[in-house]
Here is the input.
Amino acid sequence: MKNLTAQARRQVRGLITMGAITLFSFYTFYLTSDKIEPITFSFIVGNEWALLKEWVVASKTGAGIFIICSIFGLLMGYLEFKAKRTLTFLV
Here is the structure.
């Protein structure tokens, strides 16, 4: 890690932090959770465009979905780091 630039060190630290948070979330919300309450997801943009109206899943399934998204983001960040590029999102 000493031979990395300051920006590369920050990227590695960010990846390590995101990995640690993902592992903590996996343990806390997925492995040790015994709750079975349903969770409702809705993804609506403004008043006119509904990507997902009402999606009801079990709490453990919802935690698994977000953990998979976190792992995907972590993998994407790692691949971008290895390619020596930075992630940019259109906002």
User: Anything to note?
Assistant: The helical segments are 6-31, 59-82. The first strand starts at residue 38 and ends at 45.
